[in-house]
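Per your request, structure below.
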């Protein structure tokens, strides 16, 4: 009797399962019929055609972008420009092609001013100079331009636009768009140039400060970037009152606040001064750092003065072979015995990120190095942790693709200098970047 009950229960369970399956099958059949009718409707054919066209366009623009990058990497700039010019005419809305074409076809634009601090009185105006790099005599390609001035919150406080060229200077009276004087504080100036191929050239930000009262002396560095050992840095000294100077001192510091160069003169103050990019020991300063200049001294009447501080970035010095780009940083410092990056090193890593993003068809291996102080095994582990900290920051904060980045701890292997001196040990404590050419970017593998 018991077995009969179990048999009947199993029978009804199987029957229910079959009935449910039939219901599901009928339901799915209805859905398939509905989908079939949609997919074979005139609207579906139109969408399918659009998808095929978009796919073909995406594939073609990716190939063109890759070919242009390879030509650019092989220094075939004219061929890259010609290829991209045809491409932007065919695909005028493709952002990546337009950005690449802008880099190859148009000059870089920089906004500069002789003074970084100004107090607008009366009809006084600040002259903003626009420098083209390389120098551009023919600017027929310029259709229009836009000047934006923003406050520290990023709010646009002044906007000015114009048509055509030549454009080499713009005057500003320190007033906002509403024609009211702007309050004291720091302001960021950016210029946008719009070209004949609907490309946009954006200048790097130029900062000025509006003050109620001018300092007794001002120092201004017109360059934003220099290559150590290849060029000098030109500084402009501005003496608002024109009072005679008896003696002056120029102090150059690195991003960590360490004195790099001190120049003292018992003479009148020149308008311009050239720093050779060397430290007090006569050695060329490190690339991949930010240097700050401050002027101080004494007027002829005995009164002391001190200027504002201006800064300049030192470009990373790289060694390049057919398949590799290699450079080192001594300015990324870590807390003693730890892998935590010093706060002052973050700005330096942004310089690295710019280079990695510029050469985005390269993978990069980040190698950490130490001196020989302490156990070798401990140094090896610490060097890898430090390399990983750098990689994490570049990936998370600077948006470098993590698929391109590898880390390796070298410990005390491969020293650049003797570990017998403090200077040698400092040189050995470094982060090294080795970039290896990858001719096929990840997005089309």
């Amino acid at each position: 009797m018991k077995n009969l009950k179990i048999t009947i229960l199993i029978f009804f369970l199987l029957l229910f399962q079959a009935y449910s399956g039939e219901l599901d099958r009928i339901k799915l059949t209805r859905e398939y019929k509905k989908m079939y009718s949609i997919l074979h409707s005139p609207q579906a054919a139109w969408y399918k055609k659009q998808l095929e066209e978009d796919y073909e366009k995406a594939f073609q623009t990716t190939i063109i972008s890759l070919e242009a990058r390879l030509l650019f990497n092989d220094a075939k700039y004219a061929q890259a420009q010609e290829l991209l010019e045809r491409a932007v005419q065919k695909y005028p809305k493709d952002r990546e092609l337009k950005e690449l074409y802008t880099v190859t076809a148009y000059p870089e634009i920089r906004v500069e001013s002789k003074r970084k601090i100004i107090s607008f009185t009366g009809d006084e105006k600040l002259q903003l100079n626009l420098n083209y790099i390389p120098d551009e005599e023919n600017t027929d390609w310029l259709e229009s331009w836009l000047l934006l001035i923003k406050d520290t919150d990023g709010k646009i406080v002044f906007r000015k636009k114009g048509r055509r060229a030549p454009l080499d200077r713009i005057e500003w009276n320190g007033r906002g768009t509403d024609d009211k004087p702007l309050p004291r504080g720091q302001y960021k100036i950016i210029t946008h140039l719009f070209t004949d191929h609907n490309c946009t050239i954006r200048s790097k930000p130029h900062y000025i400060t509006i003050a109620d009262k001018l300092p007794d002396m001002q120092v201004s560095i017109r360059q934003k970037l220099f290559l150590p050992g290849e060029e000098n840095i030109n500084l402009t000294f501005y003496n608002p009152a024109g009072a005679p100077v008896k003696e002056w001192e120029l102090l150059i510091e690195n991003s960590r606040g360490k004195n790099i160069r001190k120049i003292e003169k018992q003479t009148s103050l020149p308008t311009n001064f050239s720093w050779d990019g060397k430290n007090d020991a006569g050695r060329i300063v490190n690339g991949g750092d930010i240097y700050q200049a401050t002027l101080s001294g004494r007027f002829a009447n005995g009164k002391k003065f001190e200027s504002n501080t201006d800064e300049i970035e030192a470009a990373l010095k790289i060694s390049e072979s057919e398949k590799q780009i290699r450079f080192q940083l001594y300015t990324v410092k870590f807390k003693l015995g730890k892998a935590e990056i010093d706060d002052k090193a973050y700005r330096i890593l942004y310089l690295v990120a710019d280079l990695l993003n510029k050469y985005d068809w390269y993978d990069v291996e980040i190698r950490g190095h130490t001196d020989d102080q302490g156990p070798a095994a401990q140094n090896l582990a610490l060097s890898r942790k430090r390399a990983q900290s750098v990689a994490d920051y570049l990936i998370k904060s600077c948006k470098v693709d993590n698929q391109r980045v590898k880390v390796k701890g070298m410990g005390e292997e491969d020293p650049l200098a003797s570990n017998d001196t403090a200077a040698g040990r400092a040189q050995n404590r470094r982060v090294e970047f080795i970039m290896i050419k990858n001719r096929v970017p990840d997005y089309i593998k």
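Helices lie at 2-39, 42-73, 77-90, 95-105, 346-358, 376-396, 422-428.

Regards,
D.
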